[in-house]
């Protein structure tokens, strides 16, 4: 008895355990779907987040009386920062929280790393007038007496007991002696430069109002220099004819152009000829408000665009655009730093852009006003990423970290002019190039004549900007699905109607599984046949394909007519229910006829070759793997899906409805059209929806049967690239966590949502229909 | 006529036409794949064409005919041919000429009217080789160990080489492979000790001595291998190619020498089957364009097996829940919509999910936790067979659920009530009564899932399939089953060879053969599933009465 009770108890436990396990298993299906949804969303989400800037560290420093900080910077990992002051010394500081000694000064041994840059005897007065930055790590130090030094603060990592430490290292690519930039050695009020391995070009404006261009041509290579020996180079001095005041000069990093700003006019000079500098263009922005003036200028990464900031707080982007009259500088877009642009305020100049800082690799930029208001923009996506006050007042010096994930600024203490603080900020701004607008609207890319929808994710060149418009690939998806449906729906639905309504049960039992067998065929095989077998055939027998659209229905009608006129005893022998079988040889014959007529037609109408006729005479581009091929191949893939579900819907129309209709004297066809199809129409609709869902997500067929070019063209003779194929092609080579990777996830998410909607509607309609049938 | 149209009869015929077109396309597709695929294995005639081109230059072309086609003459107008003006079409032949070391293209088009003479000489031979593809030509001489011998010695010499080749393969794959594997494990062990700060000099010495021992073994085996290599390359054949040039083909590269034109039908049939066998069990050669597909078959089967192990319990449990436990509430409705949606989500989306979630997130974390000695080269944090199996398991889950549920719904409720009335608990009823009866339905679901998984390619391209896997995921080295390895797959093989290989023309027959194999497997699986289901339906019908 005791054993029975305990076994009963264990049975009960087992029973409820089983219940819980099974329930858990059942819910896990839902869990999986939700997991997929949430995971895709989790990966996609960061691209739509706007930038965040947080304060990281703040170090207080003392300067000698009267000293001023001119430039600052930080290493890639933001562990060591530096400042260059007008006494000509560069001081390095630890930025990590763990302070090594007072004031965070970087120490090697016991001595702080504070180096005087102007050691050479050439620099008689060690008062620095300006420090000129370039897109590389190089900086020019220019003294008040017109002496110049090229210096490069570098950092390298050492590993001591597996602990990483960043060590600063100064190098002087052209040696420690003063460089001669102006032939007459006059101090320069404005100076800009850019360099590559063979050339350095300086453009400067002297105190005696001459605009000069100086070129250093390396005998060997500027890049290979060590501090051990001096690099040999040849110097070419030039003067550019210019009789205005100069406010700012910028030389593009590719050494092609110099932008010289004089008040509100920007003069663009060509530098690519070694002993000449031609005025290429003048940029004169127009302002709505007459009092507005240009206040700052900067170059965007990639050497193509120039940014102009004005006193009204807006920044405009300009680049060269091919027009009918050659390449012209055009204002592409404008960024407003203040939402409320009231002109009364403009006079006080608080809105004026005092400086523009651009990132080294991306097309982001930071604007600064006198009050220290910072705005962050990304040009291509037209995104206003951040606005706020980092420090009070305009900083003495400001720099963006090399990886663009941090900022460093030097601020003077308002109370004590000998005290400055070195502040760092961390920037979270990984995907500024992606915005909803940039994905779905036309974007004007640098070098393009007009805004356009472009998908081009990778390229060979380094300063390539990814162009991520989902429009061409979404268009491709719709185009492929549409052509497939145009082909599949008529065939699948007619086949479903006949099989469900007219076919004998014996034949239906064989025909239905055979057509459904096609659903099991791997799409990779359909794609392979489409790409390597069908596409060449279609290219060769193009007229035949179009003939088939007429021949097949005509042959069917002809057979029907002949059968109709047969004597009755023949009709008894070959009943109408055998029609599908009878038609097989007829249709094959029609196909054969179409193909044998193809050559004749080409000779008669298309000058012997329809393909060439299309391209040469009609100007229609022809790809071998085109929408027609995809339509047919993918059509075959969706025929069984549509057929199977539509057939089910028609077959399960309650018998008494049809019997009633027939009893009232309607013909078979009338019953079908007016009763059966009408009743089954929701089911047919849901079948088509399911088919569409499958066509939208199909990957392999499109991948193999089209050229995968992301173009916007409805032409049946051209290919396309679909969302799914795009993922398959580009996912394996996209960098994890990059914008490209996340956009591909977004493409998958779009597909997911798209099919989710279609499937849910279809399933909903089907469930309703099932209830309706059972109530009849 | 008008009356006839009004009666609707033409439209009925039109809809019958839809059925016919569907049938023609299904059967035509299967026939196309079968005929093209099988003809790849059939030893074809070797032809010698004497060619005189329009400039009068004469040449000889030897090879197999791949394709014949008729083209309208005016498409060739640019060639400036001297033709009979009444001729409208021209025959063109695609001939595989092989001999890749002599000519860059091993296919060439011949125009029918340039061929002055066609013959099938009996002594024309085709040599299948491990490099440079097939060689077509006449055997000039057979050289054994530097001395010319009679041609009749050829089979004997080939057998000798084949034996050595087997021994070389054995050495390379299992013995040397095992040593390399153990060396790698030792390196990782050292690294692990280092990371854990447990590497003592004693341990280091132990590892060093093991390494030295292994290296000694390795040297020994390598010497042995070199010995075989030397033996194998002792003999060679001198062949005369179509342009009369003499070419030396070393025996170490020769797989098979056949005189196709001397074979009778039975010999050809024998060769046909031996080709099929070779296709199934051999490794691919020459960037997958020649040889067999064994690793692809193996990879497909292993991945599908793993997937079945994962998907079956989940699918069956979910179906049982939906049919036996779930009440008529909103949750059930949502669950059903979830199942339908899982079935409808495009497969590439599963691939993306698998890559991001399984490979990078789960796999990456596993690497951090258990395989840190291997980093930065990933172990599980990279596409592999386990992740492929998991991804496809999610993909095929709805297939198993739908099929199992259908089976469950056909079991008469009287059986459940009977069991419960006799005092069995619900779990016992399930386990003893319902599941055994539903097992064929479950079987059907699993088979359909396998068929689906075997043909799916798109997601696998992201989560684990490669064009050429150096090692099978299953081998003689502990732990034998390497779930982290990448694998080859029949479907991907088709895509890769058909679209990514440099010599598509040469690879096309092989792609057709692979497609035939895949279609055969999938159609067979589907037909089995359908027949099981049909038999099951009959049985339930009997139960009901």
Automatic annotation (TrEMBL), chain A:
Q: Where is the ABC transmembrane type-1 domain?
A: 474-762
Cell compartments where the protein resides? Cell membrane
Q: Which Pfam families match?
A: BPD_transp_1
> Cross-referenced PROSITE patterns, in alphabetical order?
ABC_TM1
Q: Which UniProt keywords apply?
A: Membrane, Transmembrane, Transmembrane helix, Transport
The protein's topology relative to the membrane is:
Multi-pass membrane protein
Q: Specify the domain of life of the species encoding this protein.
A: Bacteria
Query: Which CDD domains did the record assign?
Result: TM_PBP2
| Regions that span the bilayer | 20-42, 480-503, 541-566, 578-607, 627-651, 672-692, 741-762
Keyword Membrane listed: yes
Q: Which family does it belong to?
A: Belongs to the binding-protein-dependent transport system permease family.
Q: What is the protein's given name?
A: ABC transporter permease subunit
What is the organism of origin for this protein? Colwellia echini
The top of its lineage is:
Bacteria, Pseudomonadati, Pseudomonadota, Gammaproteobacteria, Alteromonadales
UniProtKB/TrEMBL annotation, chain B:
**Keyword Isomerase assigned:** no
Gene3D superfamilies hit by this protein: MetI-like (1.10.3720.10)
Record bears the keyword Transcription regulation:
no
Q: Which residues cross the membrane?
A: 12-34, 293-322, 334-362, 385-408, 429-451, 510-532
| Coiled coil spans | 204-231
User: Which keywords accompany this UniProt record?
Assistant: Cell membrane, Coiled coil, Membrane, Transmembrane, Transmembrane helix, Transport
The domain of life is Bacteria
Query: Where does the UniProt entry say this protein principally localizes?
Result: membrane
Membrane topology note: Multi-pass membrane protein
- Localization per record: Cell inner membrane; Cell membrane
Domain ABC transmembrane type-1: where? 297-529
User: Which PROSITE patterns does the record associate with it?
Assistant: ABC_TM1
CDD domains membership: TM_PBP2
> What family is this?
Belongs to the binding-protein-dependent transport system permease family. CysTW subfamily.
Please report the name of this protein according to its UniProt entry.
Phosphate transport system permease protein PstA
The organism is: Colwellia echini
* Lineage of source species: Bacteria, Pseudomonadati, Pseudomonadota, Gammaproteobacteria, Alteromonadales
Query: Gene symbol?
Result: pstA
């Amino acid at each position: 008895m005791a054993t029975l009770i305990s076994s009963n108890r264990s049975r009960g436990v087992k029973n409820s355990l089983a219940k819980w396990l099974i329930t858990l298993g059942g819910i896990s299906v839902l869990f999986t779907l939700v997991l997929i949804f949430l995971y895709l969303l989790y990966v996609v989400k960061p691209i739509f987040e706007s930038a965040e800037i947080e304060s990281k560290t703040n170090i207080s420093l003392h300067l000698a009386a009267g000293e001023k900080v001119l430039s600052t910077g930080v290493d890639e990992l933001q562990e060591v920062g530096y400042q260059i002051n007008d006494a000509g010394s560069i001081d390095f500081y630890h930025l990590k929280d763990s302070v090594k000694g007072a004031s965070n000064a970087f120490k090697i041994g016991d001595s702080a790393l504070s180096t005087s840059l102007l050691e050479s005897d050439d620099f008689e007065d060690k008062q620095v007038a300006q420090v000129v930055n370039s897109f590389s790590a190089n900086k020019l130090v220019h003294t008040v007496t017109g002496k110049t030094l090229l210096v490069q603060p570098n950092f390298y990592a050492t590993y001591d007991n597996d602990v990483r430490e960043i060590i600063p290292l100064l190098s002087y690519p052209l040696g420690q002696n003063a460089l001669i930039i102006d032939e007459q050695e006059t101090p320069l009020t404005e100076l800009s430069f850019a360099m590559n391995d063979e050339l350095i070009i300086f453009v400067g404006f002297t105190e005696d109002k001459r605009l000069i261009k100086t070129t250093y041509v390396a005998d060997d290579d500027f890049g290979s220099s060590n501090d051990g020996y001096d690099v040999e180079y040849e110097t070419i001095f030039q003067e550019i004819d210019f009789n205005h005041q100069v406010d700012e000069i910028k030389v593009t990093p590719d050494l092609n152009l110099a932008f010289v700003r004089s008040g509100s006019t920007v003069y663009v000079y060509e530098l690519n000829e070694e002993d000449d500098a031609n005025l290429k263009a003048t940029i004169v922005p127009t302002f709505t408000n007459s009092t507005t003036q240009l206040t700052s200028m900067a170059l965007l990464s990639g050497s193509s665009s120039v940014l102009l900031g004005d006193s009204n707080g807006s920044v405009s982007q300009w680049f060269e655009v091919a027009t009918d009259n050659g390449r012209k500088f055009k204002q592409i877009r404008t960024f407003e730093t203040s939402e409320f642009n009231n002109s009364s305020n403009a006079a006080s100049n608080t809105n004026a852009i005092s400086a523009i800082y651009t990132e080294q690799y991306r097309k982001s930029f930071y604007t600064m006003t006198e009050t220290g208001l910072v705005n962050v923009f990304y040009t291509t996506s037209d995104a206003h990423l951040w606005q706020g006050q980092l420090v009070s007042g305009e900083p003495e010096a400001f720099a963006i970290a090399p990886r663009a994930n941090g900022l460093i600024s030097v601020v003077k203490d308002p109370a004590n002019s000998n005290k400055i603080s070195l502040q760092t900020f961390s920037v979270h701004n990984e995907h500024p190039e992606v915005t909803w607008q940039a994905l779905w609207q036309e974007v004007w890319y640098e070098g393009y004549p007009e805004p356009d929808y472009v998908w081009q994710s990778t390229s060979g060149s380094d300063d390539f900007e990814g162009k991520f418009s989902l429009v061409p690939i979404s268009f491709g998806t719709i185009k492929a699905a549409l052509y497939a449906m145009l082909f599949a729906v008529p065939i699948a639905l007619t086949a479903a109607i006949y099989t469900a309504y007219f076919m004998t049960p014996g034949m239906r039992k064989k025909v239905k599984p055979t057509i459904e067998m096609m659903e099991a065929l791997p799409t990779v095989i359909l794609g392979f046949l489409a790409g390597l077998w069908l596409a060449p055939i279609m290219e060769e027998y193009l007229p035949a394909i179009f003939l088939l659209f007429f021949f097949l229905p005509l042959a069917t009608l002809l057979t029907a007519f002949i059968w109709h006129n047969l004597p009755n005893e023949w009709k008894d022998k070959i009943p109408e229910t055998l029609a599908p079988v009878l038609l097989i040889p007829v249709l094959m014959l029609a196909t054969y006829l179409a193909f044998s007529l193809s050559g004749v037609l080409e000779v008669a109408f298309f000058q012997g070759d329809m393909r060439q006729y299309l391209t040469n005479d009609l100007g229609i581009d022809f790809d071998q793997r085109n929408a027609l091929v995809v339509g047919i191949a993918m059509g075959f893939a969706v025929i069984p899906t549509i057929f199977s579900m539509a057939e089910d819907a028609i077959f399960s129309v309650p018998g008494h409805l049809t019997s009633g209709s027939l009893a009232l004297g309607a013909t078979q066809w009338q019953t079908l059209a007016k009763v059966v199809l009408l009743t089954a129409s929701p089911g047919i609709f849901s079948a088509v929806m399911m088919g569409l869902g499958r066509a939208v997500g199909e990957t392999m067929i499109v991948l193999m049967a089209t050229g995968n070019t992301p173009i916007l063209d409805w032409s049946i003779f051209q290919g396309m690239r679909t969302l799914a194929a795009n993922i398959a092609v580009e996912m394996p080579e996209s960098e994890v966590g990059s914008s490209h990777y996340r956009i591909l996830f977004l493409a998958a998410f779009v597909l997911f949502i798209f099919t989710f909607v279609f499937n849910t509607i279809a399933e909903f309609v089907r469930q309703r229909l099932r209830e309706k049938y059972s109530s009849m | 006529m008008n009356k006839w149209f009004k009666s609707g009869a033409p439209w009925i015929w039109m809809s019958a036409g839809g059925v016919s077109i569907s049938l023609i396309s299904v059967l035509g597709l299967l026939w196309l794949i079968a005929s093209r695929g099988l003809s790849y294995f059939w030893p074809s005639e070797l032809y010698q064409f004497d060619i005189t081109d329009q400039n009068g230059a004469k040449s000889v072309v030897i090879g197999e005919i791949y394709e014949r086609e008729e083209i309208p003459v005016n498409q060739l107008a640019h060639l400036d041919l001297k033709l009979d003006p009444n001729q409208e079409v021209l025959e063109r032949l695609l001939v595989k000429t092989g001999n890749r070391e002599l000519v860059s293209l091993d296919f060439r088009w011949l125009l029918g009217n340039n061929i002055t003479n066609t013959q099938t000489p009996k002594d024309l031979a085709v040599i299948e080789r491990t490099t440079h593809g097939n060689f077509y030509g006449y055997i000039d001489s057979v050289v054994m160990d530097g001395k010319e011998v009679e041609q009749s010695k050829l089979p004997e010499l080939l057998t000798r080489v084949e034996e050595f080749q087997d021994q070389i393969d054995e050495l390379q794959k299992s013995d040397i492979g095992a040593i390399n594997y153990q060396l790698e494990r030792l390196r990782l062990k050292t690294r692990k000790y280092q990371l854990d700060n447990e590497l003592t000099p004693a341990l280091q010495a132990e590892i060093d001595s093991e390494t030295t021992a292994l290296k000694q073994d390795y040297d020994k085996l390598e010497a042995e291998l070199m010995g075989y290599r030397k033996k194998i390359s002792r003999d060679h054949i001198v062949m005369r190619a179509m342009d009369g040039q003499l070419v030396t083909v070393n025996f170490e590269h020769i797989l098979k020498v056949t005189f196709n034109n001397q074979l009778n039908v039975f010999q050809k049939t024998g060769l046909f089957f031996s080709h099929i066998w070779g296709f199934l069990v051999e490794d691919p050669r020459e960037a997958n364009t020649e040889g067999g597909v064994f690793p692809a078959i193996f990879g497909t089967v292993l991945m599908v097996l793993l997937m079945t192990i994962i998907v079956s319990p989940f699918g069956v449990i979910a179906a049982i829940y939906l049919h036996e436990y779930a009440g008529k509430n909103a949750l059930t409705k949502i669950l059903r919509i979830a199942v339908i949606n899982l079935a409808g989500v495009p497969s590439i989306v599963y691939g993306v999910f698998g890559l991001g979630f399984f490979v990078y997130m789960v796999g990456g974390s596993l690497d951090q936790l258990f395989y840190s000695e291997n980093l930065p080269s990933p172990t599980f944090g990279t596409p592999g067979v386990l992740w492929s199996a998991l991804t496809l398991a999610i993909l095929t889950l709805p297939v198993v659920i739908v099929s199992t549920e259908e089976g469950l719904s056909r079991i008469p409720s009287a059986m459940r009530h009977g069991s419960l009335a006799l005092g069995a608990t619900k779990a016992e009823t399930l386990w003893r009564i319902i599941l055994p009866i539903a097992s064929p339905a479950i079987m059907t679901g699993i088979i359909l899932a396998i068929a689906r998984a075997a043909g799916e390619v798109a997601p696998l391209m992201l989560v684990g399939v490669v064009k050429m896997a150096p090692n099978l995921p299953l081998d003689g080295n502990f732990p034998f089953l390497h779930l982290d390895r990448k694998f080859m797959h029949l479907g991907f093989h088709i895509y890769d060879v058909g679209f990514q290989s440099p010599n598509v023309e040469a690879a096309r027959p092989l792609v057709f053969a692979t497609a035939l194999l895949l279609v055969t497997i999938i159609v067979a699986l589907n037909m089995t599933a359908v027949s099981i289901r049909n038999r099951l339906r009959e049985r339930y019908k009997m139960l009901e009465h």
